[in-house]
Amino acid sequence: MTPEIGHFALALTLAMAMVQSVLPIVGASRGNILWMHSARWSSIGQVFFASIAFFALMQAFITSDFTVKNVVENSHSLKPMLFKIAGTWGSHEGSLLLWVLILTVFGAAVSVFGTNIPDTLKARTLSVQAWVSVGFLTFMLFTSNPFDRVFPPPTDGQDLNPLLQDVGLAMHPPLLYFGYVGFSIVFSFAVAALIEGRIDAAWARWVRPWTLAAWMSLTAGIALGSWWAYYELGWGGWWFWDPVENVSFMPWLMGTALLHSAIVTEKRDAFKSWTILLAILTFALSLLGTFVVRSGLLTSVHAFAVDPQRGLYILGLLALSIGGSLTLFAWRAPLMEPGGLFKPISREAGLLVNNLILATATGVVLFGTLYPLFYEAMTGGDKLSVGPPFFNASFIPLMLPLVFVMGIGPFLSWKRADLQGVAQRLRLVALLTVLATLAIWYMTNGGPVLGYLSIFLALWLFFATLKEWALRVKLFDAPFAESRRRAANLPRSSYGMTLAHAGLAVAMFGFIGSTVWKSEQVVFVQPGDVVSIAGFDVTFEGVERVRGPNYFADRGTLTVNKEGRFITELFPERRIYPVAESSTTESAIRSTLIGDLYASIANPASEDASAQGAWTLRILYEPLVFFIWLGTAMLVLGGGLSLSDRRLRVGAPRRRAISASKMPAE
Amino acid sequence: MRKIFAVILFSVLATTAFAVEPDEMLQDPVLEARAREVSKELRCVVCQNQDIDSSNAGVARDLRLLVRERLVAGDSNQEAIDYIHARYGDYVLMKPPLNRSTAVLWGAPFFLGLSALLVGFVVLRASRRKRAVVGLTDAEEAEVTRFIKHNSPGDRP
Amino acid sequence: MARIFALIPLVVALVFGGFFLWGLDPDRDPNNIPSVLISQPAPEFALPAVEGLDTPGFSRADLVGNDGPVIVNVFASWCVPCRAEHSVLTQLVEREGQRLFGINYKDKPPDATRWLAELGNPYEKIGSDIKGRAGIEWGISGVPETFIVGGDGTVLYRFVGPVVGEDAIATFRQALVQTGALKGGQGE
For residue C106, which residues of chain A lie inside 8 Å, CB to CB? Predict the structure, then answer.
């Protein structure tokens, strides 16, 4: 019965979304307050029913109800409960349901908490958001119903893939979807503003919290995905420029540009068209991501079930929403009032450079990801692939100048900045950066030039960010008590920026260290053999068979010593899941700030080695990997700090009503 | 389609072979380092999102051995890649070839970068130019003067 | 001027949309990599016979100077789908007069011999490719794969995966007809 209730609830959500699609926006142009305010009820109603649907599906998973097709395809009675629950959103249908749920929650949040937003804008925004809901709901109800039953019900489910039974991986989709949906709200605001025909500083202020929340979530989701790949897949890598990684990365790049562009619109009433366009494109790229993974357009290990029919539907959704909004943009944007003037050396100019570089980088990644499709279409069937060499060669040279500009940007004042003054303030920073880079060069005994250049820029960003903060609190320039007072009174969004920019620098150290100075040993080992790597001596003690809840494993024992001192023991495993008929490599990782020691074992492919009782041992040493996770956490925290800044939640001041007698005749 | 994917995935995971193995490696460390580099540039045709250096597939192992054979036989890195390219086509190259059809791809970063520079230029120029201030006509001038005269503070209770 | 700039995103989106529409064609298989060999002469290879089997070995020379197109099948005893495919191939040989050559890929001769003894041997010649090197020359990514080679030794068609099941068999038959190996309308 519960699945049917869920199905019905979904239909009710659609009904409310359809009402919300029409009433508020018509009410806004007619000035009908009642219709505009109806959005509050329809949005709350949507959350209510969408939640019922979502929890109905979750209940089916929890009880392993194998009469529901979705549960059969994505669950198994032997799965641990946590992963049964995660199975709710792990499939194509379930993930759409999660999308819709988050969409309705955000919509209701705008309706209930957006008290400072003028009625007409709010009504129009909620209507546009309802259009998106309608799109997804009809897609679900007509092509991807999670509540389809199957008769007769099988005795057990089909999916027990051990690779997917992982906490990190379970949380990865919800975080990403929070991001995508958050950007859909910003999109709704943007389209509503285009319809209203007016963008101003206040609009940018209302949009900022949603953009920040979405961006934070997306950052966390991407980082989590990378982290999972790092510790689970066994090769010590964390980014492969796989098409599906790229489609989550592009909204992030655009979203970052959007975040910064909105600041200019808010502070200087400029970049309006940019910000609107970025809002539309960020959401477009999120939708594109949804499209690519579900339609069979491109090959990827990640892809959901390939179904061109569904792909066609999403393409229709894309055409309507993106085509429509871009047409609206082409029509309305040129009519916007141009904003504040600024000189070529100014904060606006710096942020313009930021926008342009991020947009170019997004364009390059987009082109590289889609090129195999274009090529196949243009040549009538020939295939080629675009791999990391292309992306690294084109992306990195774009990012490095951006990092340089990021260091300078916060020092520039609005409208017109004194370049000489800025250069003077950065002298110490430059000196520190050079010295630190030389020190690292000395300590690492050489390496590729690009590596040191990147380190130089990461250090530059780090020191410049700290210096900017130091300037603001007049550190060493005023009595310590004064600095402390200033530091306590700095707005949170300022700390948000400092933390986030520093976080990027920290993450960069991780990117560079783990890639450029990685070392590896792959050897056949017998019990007692010692392998040396990065100053560690790793002794292979042997392998024993162990049992787990639904697997048995060959567990190796490694003793790690350094210069005679015992450091730790590592237990890499090779697990075999008999029911799922698959196996996984569980690497053993010893993580410190300086670097990760990363070990895995396997049966040798060579029969001779196998016959001798040898095992293949693969040890990697990746310096500074931890900084990647630390840096991305700092990015998220920085966003959170900005988000919690009370100033953001106090909207534009309301006009106090002035009695008519005091106003001159208009 | 999902079943086929699942079959491939499972058959890959079920093998206990494990990316590049010690018995495949060459004695000469310089040649071996080159072999690893070349392997990273070749895409596994079975596990299509990995290079042959990391892939567990049987074909990947064969290709790794073949690459080493070619290097030992005296091929340069590019020649070894070309050897495999000749048998498997463009798809197997991680770095797309540079020819007329792929000029669009390789040119894209430059094109996009230049477009960005152009846009930046245009925007900066537009934001510097003081917008033309349209002067008031005489009639409007008079009206403004009258308004100011009649509306100075103190006129209203 | 601003108008033109503002239109660019829409135009780009429309162009992309066109390509996406093309890409959704249900007949298109994104995982399938086209063979480099099509319309090229068959690769160089010379394989000995499978040890313990009477069937002679197989080399490139066997593919040149034939009366009509022939089928080259890459198989192995450890390959589960090859079993099911075997009967389809046998039918093509016995009922419809197709000529079948085999490459025994990375298989131990005793295993292969036993497998063929159990299932029957429809192959005219079989090359023993223990190292898998000949397979690489043919650009295969796994087993089974089946090729149609013209009488002059030009590779005309490649089928990846087992020729098993209605759709696969129909596709393969169509290819046989198109290359002239089968007269149209013959058989099922």
Answer: none
pLDDT single digits (tens) A42-95: 999 999 999 999 999 999 999 999 999 988 888 888 888 888 898 898 888 898
Distance (Å) from the alpha carbon of B95 to chain C's nearest alpha carbon: 16
Residues 117-146 of A with CB under 8 A from B: none
Where in the sequence is the domain holding B144, given as residue range(s)? 103-150
Q: Is B81 within 8 Å of chain A by CB?
A: no
**Chain B residues inside the 8 Å CB shell of C33:** 45, 88-89, 91
In a shared domain, residues B26 and B81: yes
B153 in contact with A, Cβ within 8 Å: no
Give the model's confidence band at B98: pLDDT under 50 very low, under 70 low, under 90 confident, else very high. Answer: confident
A490 at the B interface (CB within 8 A)? no
Please report whether residue B71 resides in a domain.
yes
Confirm whether A642 is domain-assigned.
Answer: no
Indicate whether B97 belongs to any domain.
Answer: no
**B17 located within any domain:** yes
Q: Taking a C-beta distance cutoff of 8 angstroms, is the pair A623, A517 a contact?
A: yes
Q: Answer whether residue B45 is part of any domain.
A: yes
Is B13 in the same domain as B78? yes
Domains, chain C, ranges and CATH? Answer: 37-179 (3.40.30.10)
Residues C46-105: tens digit of each pLDDT: 999 988 888 899 999 989 988 889 999 999 999 999 999 999 999 999 988 889 999 999
What are chain C's partners, defined as 3 or more CB pairs within 8 angstroms? A, B
Which chains pack against A, by 3+ Cβ pairs within 8 A? B, C
Task: Give the CATH number of the domain where residue B56 resides.
Answer: 1.10.8.640
Distance CA C74, CA C69 (A): 16
Q: What is the largest CA-CA distance in chain B?
A: 104
Helix residue ranges per DSSP H, chain B: 2-14, 29-40, 58-72, 77-88, 103-128, 138-150
Contact B89/C at CB under 8 A: yes
Kindly state whether residues B73 and B33 are assigned to the same domain. yes
Same-domain status, A272 and A360 = yes
> What confidence score (pLDDT) does residue A157 get?
82
Tell me which chain A residues have a C-beta less than 8 angstroms from the C-beta of C13.
284, 322-323, 326
Nearest CA-CA partner of A267 in A208, A215, A192? A208
To the nearest whole percent, how much of chain A has pLDDT over 90? 51
**pLDDT score of A292:** 80
Residues from chain A that touch B17, judged by Cβ atoms under 8 A, are 602-605
Cβ contact C35–B89 (<8 Å): yes
End-to-end C-alpha distance for chain C, whole angstroms? 65
Q: How many distinct structural domains can be found in chain A?
A: 4
Q: Find the CB nearest C10 among A298, A318, A327.
A: A327
Question: Domain for residue A462, yes or no?
Answer: yes
The Cα–Cα gap between A551 and B10 comes to: 15
Question: Which residue segment(s) compose the domain that A403 sits in?
Answer: 166-415
Neighbours of B28 (CB within 10 A): 13
- DSSP one-letter string for A389-440: HHHHHHHHHHHHHHHHHHHHGGGSPSS---HHHHHHHTHHHHHHHHHHHHHH
Distance CA C25, CA B115 (A): 33
Q: Tell me if A657 is assigned to some domain.
A: no
Choose among B93, B24, B95: nearest CA to B58. B24
Interface test with A, best of C1, C12, C20 (most A CBs within 10 A): C20
- Tell me the pairing of strands C145-149 and C58-59: unpaired
Structural domains counted in chain B: 2
For A403-430, the pLDDT digits (tens) are 999 999 999 988 888 889 999 989 999 9
Same domain, B82 and B110: no
- For residues A160 and C157, give the distance between their C-alpha atoms in angstroms, rounded to a whole number: 38
Q: Which of residues 363-392 of A touch B (CB under 8 A)?
A: 363-364, 367-368, 371, 374-375, 378-379, 382-390
